[in-house]
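Class prep. Sample record?

___
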Amino acid sequence: MQRRATATIMVDDDLILRPANMTHSDSLLEAFEETWPEVSRAMPWILPEHEFGPQITDFLDETERTGRVGRMHHWVLVRPWDEAVLGLLGFDRVTRSAEAEWNLGYWVRSSAQRKGLAGKAIQAALRWLGDLEQVDVELKVDPNNAAGKRTVERTVRQWGGSRCLSGDSAITVAGVRTPHECHLISIGPDTGPR
């Protein structure tokens, strides 16, 4: 497995993926507060009974350190003309299926939803991750999250992936166990969206 540092990805004139780091803490906190409590579905590590600020700071500190050595990759979705943080997307190694090497997670703030940003960001990040070698990625989704389910299913269809029942699992979100469906796609230098 090859490792590389998380790098900036220019998606298009309306979207840049910048490696998540401490410089984004205030903007990310503002975006999380705008979208609470929905953001808790995408970020189950957030404990609602604790202040968000220190949790985001800890997350960004770990993300920046592990991103430099290629152990995790997280980006903030940024609007280029004003540097507004529109969301978060990342790959980590917390997988539930035996096949996947990476897990993909994403979230878009309320005011930026329904504009196709998640789909564009996911496509760009998958191409970047698969640029060096063939890897399997799982995408988890709460089946009750209609918008998220549509985004995941569209991505899986575009990349020729499939449902992965062995990776289905319950995830604790704000203290509640919620079943999530698992989908699997293979990406690599010779693959891409259809």
Observations:
- The CA atoms of residues 39 and 47 lie 11 Å apart.
- The mean pLDDT is 89.
